[in-house]
Amino acid sequence: MRILERLAIVVAALALAITIIALLSGGLLAGRDNPGISGAGAMLGVAYKDLGHAHLRPGQPHPRYDSSPPTSGAHVPDPVLRDEAPLSNDQLLQALETGDVVFLYAGPHPPPGLRALAARLAGPFTPALAASGQAVVLAPRAGTHGIVAAAWTRLLTVGSASDPRLAAFARAALGQGAAN
To answer: What stretches of the chain show up as alpha helix (H) in DSSP?
Structure first.
């Protein structure tokens, strides 16, 4: 009887030790990560299919984009030279291709707190910063409701600049353009 009790204690201790080790090491699921689920795939917002980043010549027809505003697709490479100015789809796509994040809003002026947030995230806008894919660009866009954050293949809509998802989106997307 005493041997059975000791054997039961040893088996229980062994089972407990294996369970603790399995839990601390990730268990049976360790090493079975689904590709494409981590990293940028876990970013906030709605993801759209990557339509490529072919460069068109001026006057060439543009393809149909799968989002409004577009988040990827063929375009005429037209750099963003000014902040807080309307962007054509070509300028928007060029900015997103390089890795910039664009905050779109209705009206002639950015909503309260948006300019300060952009400066905190990326510093003051310069054309060189935008060309390097490290800018947060502010741009009015007709028909926009709230604030629309755009990155390559991704959009997020929020109600105000104080929404923490806006900063999280920009931090995750900044520098993650078409080639990254």
So the answer is: 2-24, 89-98, 114-122, 127-131, 164-173
As given in the structure block, the two tokens for residue 122 are: 């990326």
Q: Between β-strands 101-105 and 136-140, what pairing exists: parallel, antiparallel or unpaired?
A: parallel
**Which residue in 173, 13, 42, 35 sits closest to 101, CA to CA?**
173
Is the per-residue pLDDT at 121 higher than 90? Answer: yes
Helix (H, G, I), strand (E, B) or coil at 160: coil
Mean residue pLDDT of the chain comes to 86
* Adjacency order of strands within the sheet including 147-151: 46-47, 154-158, 147-151, 101-105, 136-140
**SS in 3 state form for 54-99?**
CECCCCCCCCCCCCCCCCCCCECCCCCCCCCCCCCHHHHHHHHHHC
The one-character DSSP state at 114 is H
Q: Are 175 and 101 in contact, with CB atoms under 8 Å apart?
A: no
Q: Token pair of 111, please? A: 């909503």
pLDDT tens for residues 124-153?
999 999 999 999 999 999 999 999 999 999
Give the residues across from 155 on adjacent strands: 46, 150
pLDDT confidence of residue 3: 78
Q: Tokens representing 32?
A: 């079975």
